[in-house]
Amino acid sequence: MSNFRHPSATPSRNQSDFTMKAPKPPDRPLVPYMRYSRKMWSKVRAENPDAQLWDIGKIIGQMWRDISDADKAIYQHEYEIEKVEYEKAFKAYQSSHYNFKTRAKANEKSSRSRMEVGGVVIQPVDEEDAGNELSCRRLAAVRFDRNHRLIGDLFSPAVVTDTRTIVAQNRMDMLRKQAQSLSAHQSKLEEELVRCSFLRLRKSAKLKKEVCEEKPQLDESKYAEMLEEMKGKLMESYKEYRKKQDEINARLVEETPVLAELVMKEEEASMNEVVGNEVDSEIKGVGHIEDANS
């Protein structure tokens, strides 16, 4: 008996070909240290129940550094064996992944060609259809009842919870303990940060105080004292300078009396000019003062 059906009315028997699962890549082998850590973790955890996770990691790392090279060679040998097996499995995975992609492309192409046909499809008579002579109404009633039961099961309040979403009590305790340890570690870091900030502020205040204390204090008496000291130094320097000049002039007079006489005249003229300028400036200053008073 031939049935006139829409392509989407009855699922195809080869539908499983379109829902193929992609091959899963093989797991990488663990390095020697990770093998040793996985082996010793439970033992170190039992010996140090109050230790934090990072402290346990430090202990295992120190144990790994302390063991002999012969013991390390055992884990290295296991790693090399699994590495060879992993390389073989990875090559097989690459070939199977390529075959999967090829089959997926072929299935997608065939499904697109079926969708483009559309319209009424005349399906060939299956061998099972000969023994199953349900009418169209009966088949529709069965599907209707099945769909309603499925909807009732989906929206029922007594749906069984997915076991993947259930967290065991020991897992909850472990997570709670980890959260507490992380909170304690965070509080320690915050306290350390506050302490460092306080020390920095205290040190900066101390340095500012030392700078202010070491800064020279200058008042009128100190200024007068410094001025007198500088005058004394300048006077001593001038006396030394005049002494050297007198010696040079005496030597010059002995060696070249004519040149010495000319130099002496020029010096006297310049000195007279300087003195005259000073006298004029003093007279002008006195005149300005008298004008201001008048």
Description:
The protein is mainly α and 294 residues long. Among the domains are: 1-125, DNA Binding (I), subunit A, CATH 1.10.30; 256-294. Helices cover 76% and strands 1% of the residues. Strands 1-2 form a two-stranded antiparallel ribbon. The longest helix is centred in the N-terminal third of the chain and has 49 residues, at 69-117.
What's this model, at a glance?
This protein has helices at residues 32-47, 53-66, 69-117, 127-131, 136-154, 169-214, 220-255, 257-293, and strands spanning 4-5, 121-122.
Features:
about 290 residues; 8 helices; disordered N terminus
What's the CATH architecture of the domain at 1-125?
Answer: Orthogonal Bundle
Task: Give the C-alpha Rg.
Answer: 53 Å
- Overall strand count: 2
- Strand and helix order: EHHHEHHHHH
Helix vs. strand class: mainly alpha
Given as residue ranges, the uncertain stretches (5+ residues, pLDDT < 50) are: 1-18, 117-123, 125-132
Mean pLDDT: 75
How large is the count of helical segments? 8
Euclidean distance between termini CA atoms: 144 Å
GO molecular function: nuclear receptor binding; nucleosomal DNA binding
Biased composition (Polar residues): 1-18
GO biological process, one term: negative regulation of DNA-templated transcription
Protein name: HMG box domain-containing protein
